[in-house]
Amino acid sequence: MVDYLIVGAGFSGCVLAERIATVLGKKSLIVEKRSHIGGNAYDYYNEYGILVHKYGPHIFHTNSQKVVDHLSQFTNWNAYQHKVLANVDGINIPVPFNLNSLSLIFPHEKAQHLEKLLLDNFGYGTKIPILQLRQSTDGELAELAEFIYQKVFLNYTKKQWNLEPDELDAAVTARVPVFISHDNRYFQDDFQGMPMEGYSAMFERMIGNNPLIDIALNTDYADILSSIQFNKLIFTGPIDEYFNYQFGALPYRSLRFEHETYNVEFYQETGTINYPNTFDYTRRTELKHLTSQKNERTTCTIEFPQPFIIGENEPYYPIPQTYNNDLYNQYAREAEKIEDSVIFCGRLADYKYYNMDQVVARALHIFEKRINI
Ligand SMILES: Cc1cc2nc3c(=O)[nH]c(=O)nc-3n(C[C@H](O)[C@H](O)[C@H](O)COP(=O)(O)OP(=O)(O)OC[C@H]3O[C@@H](n4cnc5c(N)ncnc54)[C@H](O)[C@@H]3O)c2cc1C
Question: What is the four-CA torsion angle of 329, 332, 333, 339, rounded to 10 degrees?
Answer without folding.
Answer: -170
